[in-house]
Amino acid sequence: xxxxxxPALAQVRQLGLITDNELDDxxxxxxxxxxxxxxNAEEDIDVPELAADAGLxxxxxxxxxxxxxPQDDFLRRVQYLPRQHGGAALLERQQLTADALxxxxxxxxxxxxxxxxxxxxxxxxxxxxxxxxxxLASPIAxxxxxxxxxxxSAPQFEALxxxxxxxxxxxxxxxxxxxxxxxxxxxPAYARPxxxxxxxxxxxxxxxxxxxxxxxxxxxxxxxPVAAVAEQGVERPDLQQRAAHAVKSAPLPGAGxxxxxxxxxxxxxxxxx
Length: 273
Prior knowledge:
Elements: H1 7-14, H2 20-39, H3 56-65, H4 71-79, H5 81-84, H6 87-114, H7 120-128, H8 139-149, H9 154-167, H10 170-186, H11 193-218, H12 223-234, H13 237-249
Helix pairs in contact: 3-6, 6-7, 6-8, 8-10, 9-10, 11-12, 11-13
C-alpha cells in the first residue's frame, strides 16, 4: 500500500500533523491488517481498521487510537501550530485536531456506557461536553473527566461504584476501581475532612488534660501556688473554645464533594490554552 492508495493519510501528512515516519508506520500497519484478513477472512482483527474512504477526522482519530501517532508528540505538535501557521491554514488544522480528539474521547465515553458503568443520560451529558483540546486516553480518564466537570456527582459515582462491584463486568470493575484510586491520590490534603477532625480532637484532649492536672494539683497540700497559676490561665479556656470551634466547623466525612479531580491525558503533557 502507498500513500496514494489512502489519500487521507497523505493529506494529513501534507498538513504537517504527522511525520514521514508516522506515515510509513501507518501504511505498514494497514498492510499487516490486509495480510491478516487475506490469510484468514474469518479471523477477527485485533486492531481498529481504517476504511479506504475514511475522511481526515476519521483518519487522524484512527492514528491516535492505534497509537501510531504518539499522543505526547501529537499534543505537543498541536500546541506549536500557532507558531507555524496563521489565518485559515491555522484554523483548518485546529478544527481538524479538535474534531479528531472529540471523536476519540467519544469512544472512551461510549465504552463506559457499553460496559454499563454510566446510563444513557450520563453518556449524553458527557457527549455534550467532550473536550476538543486534550485527549481522554482511556475510559478511566473519561470517567475522571466526568467527575471533574460535574457531569457525574460524587454520590452518583459512589452508587455506580457499588453497582459495578456487585454485578459489573470485569472491565467495568477495573475502570471504576482505577478511577477511584486515582481520585484518592489526587485529593489535596485540605480536602480530607479526617485531618481536620483529628487535629481538633487532639486540641480538646490537651485542653481537658491540662484542666485535670490543675484540678489534682489544686487539691494537694501545696495547692495555693498551683491555684494561683491556674488563675493566670493554665486551664486555657481559649484552647478549649478554639478546639470546640474547630470540631464544629470541620467538614464531616461524606459531606460535600468527596472527590477533587484534575483530568489530564495519562502520561501526557496537556497543551497550552
